[in-house]
């Protein structure tokens, strides 16, 4: 319903901030209220959650944060409070990396996230939070790497899986395609 609100921060509490715009104060739950300053002019990206007994606004400084919050809400077992607690850690790159690497230990650090929820997060979100350009193989890939990439995809590996392994091998130099494929397969098995 709302995309963002522009206004002035008029109140900061441990759980939320109040942003005033045109004489109306909006109570907005944010991951870290103390990252804001009193009387600061802000633009907050808003997600409105409507429940039977409440209409709650959740706010984020960046559109990407809002998108990650929305994605977390799609995971079975994660509600708005849990998603906000995950966002409060402030390490969104770490979260995305943990999902990509299927790092359950990292994910269970978050409050309310046990092993089953972490597994569900990986199942539901793996590959969905990465920007599209990171998924593709580097443009400057050598002909050997490009041929190996095509061969791995022909063997049934997804573009995302191949790109992740090729990213790990970016500093290595291969003179033949077979050596590149062998190294990539070893890395895939180690996961």
Automatic annotation (TrEMBL):
Keyword Nucleotide-binding among record annotations: yes
One GO BP annotation here? Answer: DNA repair
| A GO cellular component annotation in the UniProt record | cytoplasm
Claim: Cytoplasm is one of the keywords in the record? yes
Instruction: Name the InterPro entries for this protein.
Output: DNA_helicase_Holl-junc_RuvA_I, Hlx-hairpin-Hlx_DNA-bd_motif, NA-bd_OB-fold, RuvA, RuvA_2-like, RuvA_C, RuvA_C_sf
Q: Helix-hairpin-helix DNA-binding motif class domain: from which residue to which, for each copy?
A: 70-89, 105-124
Location of region: Domain III: 145-191
List where in the cell it is found: Cytoplasm
One MF annotation (Gene Ontology) recorded for this entry: four-way junction DNA binding
Query: SMART domains attached here?
Result: HhH1 (SM00278)
Pfam families (UniProt xref): HHH_5 (PF14520), RuvA_C (PF07499), RuvA_N (PF01330)
Which keywords does this Swiss-Prot/TrEMBL entry list?
Answer: ATP-binding, Cytoplasm, DNA damage, DNA recombination, DNA repair, DNA-binding, Helicase, Hydrolase, Nucleotide-binding
Q: Could you give the domain comment from the record?
A: Has three domains with a flexible linker between the domains II and III and assumes an 'L' shape. Domain III is highly mobile and contacts RuvB.
HAMAP family per UniProt: DNA_HJ_migration_RuvA
The UniProt entry's sequence similarity note says:
Belongs to the RuvA family.
Self-association or partners: how does it assemble? Homotetramer. Forms an RuvA(8)-RuvB(12)-Holliday junction (HJ) complex. HJ DNA is sandwiched between 2 RuvA tetramers; dsDNA enters through RuvA and exits via RuvB. An RuvB hexamer assembles on each DNA strand where it exits the tetramer. Each RuvB hexamer is contacted by two RuvA subunits (via domain III) on 2 adjacent RuvB subunits; this complex drives branch migration. In the full resolvosome a probable DNA-RuvA(4)-RuvB(12)-RuvC(2) complex forms which resolves the HJ.
Its annotated function is as follows: The RuvA-RuvB-RuvC complex processes Holliday junction (HJ) DNA during genetic recombination and DNA repair, while the RuvA-RuvB complex plays an important role in the rescue of blocked DNA replication forks via replication fork reversal (RFR). RuvA specifically binds to HJ cruciform DNA, conferring on it an open structure. The RuvB hexamer acts as an ATP-dependent pump, pulling dsDNA into and through the RuvAB complex. HJ branch migration allows RuvC to scan DNA until it finds its consensus sequence, where it cleaves and resolves the cruciform DNA.
Protein name according to UniProt: Holliday junction branch migration complex subunit RuvA
Species name: Catellicoccus marimammalium M35/04/3
């Amino acid at each position: 319903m709302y995309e963002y609100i522009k206004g002035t921060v008029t109140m900061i509490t441990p759980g939320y901030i109040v942003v005033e715009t045109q004489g109306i104060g909006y109570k907005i739950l944010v991951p870290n209220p103390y990252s804001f300053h009193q009387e600061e002019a802000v633009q907050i990206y808003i997600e409105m959650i409507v429940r039977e007994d409440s209409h709650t606004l959740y706010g984020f400084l960046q559109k990407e944060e809002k998108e990650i919050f929305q994605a977390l809400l799609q995971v079975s077992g994660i509600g708005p409070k849990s998603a906000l607690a995950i966002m409060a850690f402030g390490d969104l790159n770490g979260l995305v990396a943990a999902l990509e690497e299927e790092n359950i230990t990292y994910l269970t650090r978050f409050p309310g996230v046990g092993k089953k929820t972490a597994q569900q997060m990986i199942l539901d979100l793996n590959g969905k939070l990465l920007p599209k350009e990171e998924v593709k193989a580097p443009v400057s890939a050598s002909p050997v790497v490009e041929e190996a990439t095509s061969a791995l995809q022909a063997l049934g590996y997804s573009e995302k899986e191949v790109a992740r392994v090729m990213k790990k091998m970016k500093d290595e130099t291969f003179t033949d395609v077979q050596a590149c494929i062998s190294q990539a397969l070893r890395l895939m098995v180690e996961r």
